[in-house]
Structures are given as structure tokens and as C-alpha cells.
Amino acid sequence: MTQRFYVTTPIYYVNGSPHIGHAYTSVVADALTRYHRMRGERARFLTGTDEHGQKIEREAVKAGVTPQAFVDDVSRRFRDLWPKLGVQPDDFIRTTEARHVEGVQKWWRKVRDAGDLYKGTYKGLYCVACEGYKTEKELLPGALCPIHERPVETLEEETWFFRLSKYQEPLLKLYAEHPEFVLPETRRNEIVSFVQGGLDDLSVSRSNFTWGIPVPDDPGHVIYVWFDALFNYLTAVDGTAEAEFWPPQIQLVAKDIVRFHAVYWPAFLMSAGFPREKLPTTVWTHGYLLSGGRKTSKTPGLTAVKTPGTTDPVRIADVLGADVLRFYLLREVGFGQDGEFSIPGIIGRARAELGETVGNLLHRALPFVGKYFEGKVPAARDEDLTDAERNLRARIAALVAEVGAAWDTLAMHRALELTIEAARTANRYFDETAPWKLAKSEDRTRLGVVIAHVLEIVRVVAVMLWPVTPTKSDELRHQLGLDPVAPLEGADLWPAGWGGLATHTVVRPGQPVFPKYDPATEAAMLLSLDVRDAEATPKSTPKTMSTEEKTAETAAAAAAAPAAPAAPAAPAAPAAPAAEEASATIAYDDFAKVDLRVGKVLSAERIPRKDKLLKLSVDLGEASGPRTIIAGIALAFPVVEALVGQQVVVVANLAPRDFGKGLVSHGMLLAASSPESLSLATFPKDYAAGTRVK
Ligand code: ME8
């Protein structure tokens, strides 16, 4: 039987427009789906929108429209986004659809009939932004939600409770027997210790607003939005022809909602009668994309720092191309880690790895096919191979296997790194065999062997890139004279064997697949994406090309098959091995990645039982308001009030650091210290909060 693969993303709240964080999870899900499909599996990818709850109801009131009109509008923005990013979900579920509403009520009844729902009074704290209940000990000082840093609300209402406490032991057993249920391991450890700490029964209905799914047989209550939302993964397939896809293999979530997915969700399912083999296989938690050191978010103010530019995925894809953005998202950030998102970073990656490595390989080799082999892939007979080709094939075969293994463990960043390494290996082979010199010989055998090998590796690389850059991969294949990748159930298209590009295939040289931008175009692109520090764009490594290679390539390019509208404009330089570049100094571009800002300390307070730490509120001139910074400087300031009003230098794009107990630092202060003293970096003159320091 064909293996099946069911992947889900969270269903996104419709309280604001989609941003790059949503695009991230969905691009990952799309790439995984494509990968599994090209391996011959039956794959299904579900996404959608989460449309009920108090948060949405309040947003609709603010907008002066009915909740239904409000959610219709925002949900459409999500649905319309996906094609622009090459994301092709098989289903898009909305929690306001009848199929979902009826499904949730059905599962509610099952849970009720299992004896796991009872009525009581909930008294406690609630964060509307999380749509989640909070305990006192989780809060930041000032009764703020540790995730949203906004005040929580006190609730007291009649509610239905779910007997979550009953599932403490079954859940711990699940994590112990199936450690793959929560990945990566660090998240599992957090979840296990949370559950070991004891589970209170969970309030799963609300009665002080109405925008939700009515509780069956109790019309005064609506179902808690998380009970409603989590069941989407099931209601989308339950009772349909797609029911065979249940349960999901991979449920992607970011770390803020792992608890809902790894604790509440399996408990609801167990209560509804699902045995272990019918529970999701893995809740896979990825990190945050950060912009200017903060989580990208729907709140526009959070991205108001000058350097990083827009976080609107549509604008980015319009200017830079969907495939380039997809590649960056999966390549840049280790899956599971937080990572800074930057538009100059996208351009830098695309230039160095897609343009100067992959595109370069194709456009270096194709002109030789036109000039010396009548536009057809030359032969590479076994008897004509040398050790160089045998070693090359062995290295590529090893990389292909490693790339597959990396995809299978969701190490997409590694998979892409190794894919690019395959192209680099071929560039090195090209440099070493110097086809421009071989072309001087009357006997074309050796030249043919080299060119055939390079083109075959372009094919292999294009196939391995396809889950991430489907359009560009197919363009590469087109120039090689091949059809687009077309996954077929039961057929494994992974390029495990050598020789997929047959001898005599007619190539179709064309424009560079990955265009190279001149500095003026690049500057204009950056500006159009609101990036104001253009010098922050990583530049390519300066490359050299022998005059001999240049002449031979130009000649070959000029003689390329008639289909070529122009000589390839892509750089034709050999790729410099990374090891040679190692140095104790850093490039200016590296320094420019550090976003240093002038900050004004608004308040400073000590933290109970943390002698060395101070909690500061620091103004960086951001529309989102001051940042909380935790600094290890308490011992140097016996009178903390002395800090208030002080001008400081803040590293503004450092990933937030969690000190535990709800203390999260969103930046770092610069200081000099000796064993006797510590001084904060400052300036003799006053500068506006947020001024860039460079
Ligand atoms: O939580 N970095 O919806 P949501 C990485 N409706 N991923 C990010 C991100 C960032 N900066 N920002 C958002 C909800 N995401 C609930 C889910 S599921 C039954 C209900 C992604 O609109 C990431 O996948 O707040 C995160 O989990 C999700 O968007 C949260 O989207």
C-alpha cells in the first residue's frame, strides 16, 4: 500500500493580516508535502483559519462590522496568500463552516458522554490575546501575560470543565512510550515537566460572549475556542473520503502553542475514545522568526524598527520571487530554532547559493553543449570515465542520501545546505577539469564527459530543490530539456540513481534562472521593501575567473543553440571553497547585522531572588512601546533609580532570552566591566531613542 502523509499547520487567527510568521509554517508544510509526494506517497496538507472567540469578536466590534463579515474578509486574505507563495494546501478549513461546527459538536458530545465534562464556576485569569487561561505564577510583574506582555483579565463565570486532571498519567505514559509525540526533545522536556507539575481541569466553555460554537444542549454557552479550533484537524477529514489520512503524521506549531497541541489536544482525543495509534504521530514545534530581534507579529508596531523592512510575505514575494523567499525561510533558520528574518539576508542567500552556485553551474555548462555538441547532452560512456568522475559520482550519491535523510527528520536547513554542497562540488569539478581547455582538443570525448556530468548534477540538484523552489527547479529542468517534476503515487522521484539526464537530450538554453541584480536594482528593491540600511545586504564573495575561461565561455555562449536569447548573464566564476575564507576578522556586512540603538531607561527594578539581575523598561522609539530588558548589572547599581533616564546602547536584534519564571529579555545593554566596576556604554550628548549606533 502506498504510504500516506498528513501534515497540518495551525489554523491562523483572523484578527489581522497574514505575516511572514504564518508564511513560514505554511511554506514548511507545503515543502514537506511536496517532498513526500515526490517520494511516491499519498500526501495531504491542511491549513485554515481560526475564526471564533473573544479576541475576534472584539476586533469585529472595533472594525464596526459583524463578526461574520469580519472573519470572511480576513480569512480570504489568508486563502489568497497561499498561491502567491507557491503554497498549495489540499484543504483550507474555516472554523465557521458547517462541517466544522457540526463536527465539533459531535466530538463535544462524545467527550461529555465519556463523563469528562461537568459544570462549575471558573474564577481566574485569562489572556484574550492567547485565548488562554493563566496562573498567577506565570505572569510578568504588573499582571502581564508573559507572551503578549499585556494585562490579563479576571474571569468569574459558570463554565463547563474538562477533566484534564484525569489525563495526567495517560499523557505522561504517552510521552514516555512515544517520545516522538513531541519534537524536538527540548520541547518534550518542557511539556513533560509541565504535566508532571499537575494538571487542573480546564474550562472549556464561555458564557460572557456569543461568537463561538454553541455548546450542545446548553445554548447559554459557547465552546472554548481552543476546544473548537484543535478539532479542525479531525473535522476536515472526518466522515469524508479523506478519512483514511487520519491521524496526522506531522502537526506543525510554533512554541507559543505547543502546550495546547501536546497536552490538551491528545487529552481531548483520548477522552473522545481515540487509541494511541489514532493519535497524531508528532507535534513538531518550530521557533520564531524574529524581525529586529522580536517575534514577527500582526501588531504593526512590532516591526517598526528601521533596518529589517516589511514582513508582508506578498510584498516580499512580489519583489524577490516566491521561490527565493521559500528557499531563504527553510535554509536560513535551523528548523526548531528562532531565527532573525531579514530582507538583505534573502537577497544574499539567493545570490550566493541559488545564483552563484546552482544557476552558475547550469549557465557555465550549457554554452559548451551548443557550441560543441549540436545542442544535445553529450555522451559519457563508462569506459571514458576517470577517477575524477568516479569520485564525483560517489560524493553526489552520498549527498543525495544525506539530503533525503535530512528531509525525513525535518532538518530542512541541513537538507538545503547539502543540496547546495552538491552544486558546489560540481562547480569545483568544473574548475578542476577546465572544460575551456579541453575544448581546444580535437577529440571531444573528455569535454563531453565533463559537460554531461555537470548537467546531470544540475538535474539532481534541481530535483532535490523542487520541494522548496518548484518553479525555479522546473525552469532549470526546462533548460536541461526535461519536463517539470510530476509526482506520481507509488513512484519515487528522488534522484538516487545516476543518469536521469539521457545522452542526446536536446537542451533549451535560456535566460539566467536566478537573475543577478545590479547594485542600483538591488538598492531599489530594498527600498521598496522598506529596508533603509542598504549597506546591510550581504555581498557575494569576490570571485576570480581566468581570462582563458572567460574567453572560452563567451565564445561558447555566443555559439549556444538558437533558442538562447542572450548569452548567460549569470556569473561564471568558480565557487571559492568556504574553508579558504576563514579569518579572524569579520566583514563589515557581518558587523552591520548587529542592530545597535540608543535607548532611554524608563524604569528599573530588582527581581526577587535574582540578585544579579535588573528588569528594565527601555524606550527604543518603537511604535510598539518600550522593551523589557533583563540585564545582569544589579550589583553595580545599589540605587537602581539612578538608571532611570539614562541613555544606553542596546543590541536591538538579539533573539529574546528567556530567564525563566516569565522573565524574557528583548535586547542587551552594552557595558564595560572590570572586577571592581561596571559602566554602561552611553554618549556625552543626548540622541533620540532608537537612533542607530554604528
Ligand atoms: O495561535 N515565527 O493562531 P496565530 C514563526 N489560532 N511562526 C509564526 C510566527 C513567527 N514569528 N508568528 C506566527 C493561533 N507563526 C491559533 C492556532 S491551531 C488549532 C490554533 C505561526 O494566528 C506559527 O505556526 O497566532 C504559530 O504557531 C502560528 O503562526 C500562530 O498563529
DSSP summary, beta strand count: 27
Cα(first) to Cα(last) distance is 61 Å
Relative strand content: 15-25%
CATH superfamily of the largest domain: HUPs
Portion of residues in helices? 25-40%
Radius of gyration: 28 Å
Each distinct ligand: ligand ME8
CATH architecture of the largest domain: 3-Layer(aba) Sandwich
Annotated CATH topology of the largest domain: Rossmann fold
Number of separate helices? 20
The quaternary state of the protein chains shown equals single chain
Weakly predicted, low-confidence segments: 299-306, 541-548, 550-555, 557-583
The CATH class of the largest domain turns out to be Alpha Beta
Overall, the morphology is: globular
Q: Which structural class best describes the helix and strand composition?
A: alpha/beta
In short:
With 694 residues, this protein is α/β, with parallel strands linked by helices.
